[in-house]
Specification:
The complex is a heterotrimer. By secondary structure, chain A is an all-alpha fold. Chain A has helices spanning about 1-10, 15-30, 40-50, 55-70, 75-80, 90-140, 140-155, 155-160, 165-175, 205-230, 245-270, 275-290, 305-325, 325-330, 335-350, 355-360, 360-395, 400-415, 420-440, 445-465, 480-510; strands at about 180, 190. In chain C, strands 1, 2, 3, 4, 5, 6, 7, 8, 9 and 10 form a ten-stranded mixed β-sheet that branches. Classes of the chains: A mainly alpha, B mainly alpha, C alpha/beta.
Amino acid sequence: MDLILLGFSTLTAPLVLLTLVIGVVAGMIVGSIPGINDNIAFAVFIPFSFSMPPEQALALMVGVYCAAATGGAIPAIMIKVPGTASSLLTALDGNAMARKGAAGKALSIALTSSVVGGILSSIVLLLFAPSLAQVALRFGYVENFALAILGLSSVVGLLRGAVIKGAIAAVIGLLVANVGFSPVTGFPRYTFDNVNLIEGIPFVPLLVGLFGVAAMLELMVDIVKERHAGTKPSGLPEIGSMRLPGKLIRRLLPIWGGSAAIGNLIGMLPGAGMLMAIFLAYDQAARRFRRRFEGKPGEAEWGEGVPEGIAAPEAANNAVTASSMVPLLSLGIPGNSTSALFIGALAIHGMVPGPLLFTQHGHIAWMIIVAFLAANLIMWPIAYGVIKTVSQTIFAIPKQAMVGVIALLCLMGAYSDGANVFNMWVAVVAGIVAYSMRLAGIPLGPAILGLVLGPQLEASLANSLSISQGNWLVFFDPVSHPISAGMMLVSLALWIVPMLMSRRERASAK
Amino acid sequence: MSQIISEKRPGQRSSDVWIGLVLLAVGGAAAWMASGFDDASRPYPLALSVLMMLLGAVLSARALLGGGEDQSFTQQARILLPAAAVLGFWILALSNGLGYVVPTFAMEFAFMWLCGIRGPGRAALYAGLVTGVSYAIFVGLLDVRLPASHLPWLF
Amino acid sequence: MRKTASFMLFTLMAGALAASAGAEDFPSRDIDLIVPFDPGGAVDTTSRIIAETANKMLTGTEISVVNKSGGGGVVGQTFASKAAADGYTVLAMTSSVVTNPQMKGAGYSVDDFTPVALYSLDPQVIVVPSGSPIQTAEDFMAAAKEKTLNIVVAGVGTSHHMSGLAIERVTDVKFNYVPTKGFGAQVQAVAGGHVDGALWPLGEATAQAENGSVRILTIASESRHSRLPDVPTFQEAGIDIPIWATFRGWSVPKGTPEDVVAKLSGIMRATYEDPGYVKRMKAAGYDPVFRDAAGFKAVVDSYSKLTSVIIEEANLGK
């Protein structure tokens, strides 16, 4: 308790608190700009942080990290362009709801879910970090493979009917993830002798292309079609009232709890990442929605403006932020690529994450933890302010003028990640491919999961087999790998249960 | 993830046939390239490319038998190609020493025009604003290193 | 805006400067230190500490760190190899520059760079999980003779993988390599006891050893390390490899005037002699050293000789 108070007192120094607030505002803005994400923002910021005291630098980073995941939802809802990869699923139901004239409600759900998810995971970080970190250590190659399988299985629930196209999407993602040097032998695969592809297709520009550029093309096609059809261009949705009825809050409570739990767990595991968490949470929410609300009067179709579709991914992605710091602070193992950048920021100030951070620089370690809680607490009013002022102004700009701006932001964002022109081509090509897939009815979600999990899938499989001397049963071994066996069973259930359900439905329809 | 709901127009073959064929070709090319990888690096990509070929074949076959969706790609391409060309030209100009300001202004102007902002004065005003503000943010504030320019007096 | 201004100044005076790019007035404008990796990594952090210290001594100009990442370092390294040989583009050179042409098909060769100065040497160490029954280097070698140990390395063909191959050459043990990308994932594998051990650079291993998650058994350097007086060297442990270390230093494109190289080397020496710099580097987990251009060249050459044999024998080349 003393230590938590120490962290608290470090954080409440006026300048530190101020930088945290600045960080939250900046993160909100960074997140809400398509094409720029927290990775790119940190790449730009870390050099600056050199000349700042460590308390301020880290408070600012915590603020940006927490708020970027929230800010991404704003353009996702308003113009169906995800501000960050973490809000790609929010764009579906969120934008649909906004088009029905309830943009304020959609934003409010996104915001509240983010804050709730973030606070729950900050509390977990605050109270259980050291004991939970040991969970991360239980994950070896075998468990990581099972985790990747579980992640891919989470897609099944999203498909509904379009099974073949869903499978095609997953295969596309997995195949593209093969580009680069083989993890097993270092053999160059699909690199076309281009050194830029040695480590695979650069990931940040790829995401910028898949979400930013593709969404910008979609926006443009909409505008041109409207013009050809001779209709007056539809304006952007009005934000309107942001009040959430109590009934809706009660309805979303279980979604928040479940999604935050998923985000907490996935965030802690290195090698899983935010995207997997939002897919799993979305999948769970979809299943619950179908069981309880689908088809009832007054309910939208899934994907057409359902509150759960906004709440689940937003609660999950903010839960990942704080929990990804659990293994980082306790063990020095980053939970994802963004939290890995905290290592650099700490190193610049002569600190190494891990148990020693708590003994040698306890005030910093606890300040980071308390800052996550504080950032989420102050996020609600700040986000509210940003939406009511900045966003209100920005979305008053005519839609037609936005296309060029988003294009420029995406390409410059991609370029800023390493000052490499190749990245811009990656973003453009990825954008066109993603748009074509959309036209072809091939869902983007499974492809993204394939991309994210592909490298881990192959490497962890190869390493598991190499360590177990070729024993494929190791993944189902309940004695030496109970976690893996459990995850494999859950994955199996994710596949089988929907099949059984649909059979029963068909049988009962007869 | 967005569901494109399109009704199959009568008397027309589903576009899924072509999508399936494209996947078959891409999968085939990937499989052919994979056959040249070393023993340990080959099986995984080879299996995925064969799977892609299979799924492509199934999609085509299903569409030929009357299922599947239809979507006109030519109509979309007429809108998308100019946009892709503008982006491509901008990258080429920026990376080949034409600086930031001129290509960016041209790109923004082109997009305004494509999106139906008429009146050269209005489009130019918007394009100029975007160019100026973005230059100030990226180069001035964020210190992004742009590719070397042959026309440094133009920024 | 400073950069733009100096760039414009440069274009105005380009002709004059090119003609008289002597060392008397070097540096007369900002020096770009190309870091071919993302911000936040080891090379970036050390480069920034150096730049900050050096900039306090330079007047009128400064060293600015430029991150040009991609392709595992090859993109930035290729960029630097093609830059003007005037000393205003300096590469933060790591051991990968030596092996990338052979391993990754990079378009330059190590001879395209002139070494300027070395600032960090990171010897290889063998670590085991802290819960492992293996207590000493002798235990380790004995265990390795008995059965094939699973050893984590950063990737196939990395310096760490090659150090393992080098051990196999001089002893009669064989390892099963478990290539694991990213240091975090490697810590997870070792500290979680999912493998028998790992080949790591000392810098990163020290922090983990101090955390108590791993045990350092032996170190591939000529003498014992001051921070780890109880850890024997490879040779003391019966592995006949005198030194195996990755390095970090500065280099410039081939053809840079000698006096400019000497001036740059001097900037690094002055940095090294700054007590604040040494303290800061140590706090960040790096042991600062200094070797001048000739000394650095010797390190690069010996590393190049060591690795080229292994790359050929193990058929790792492209």
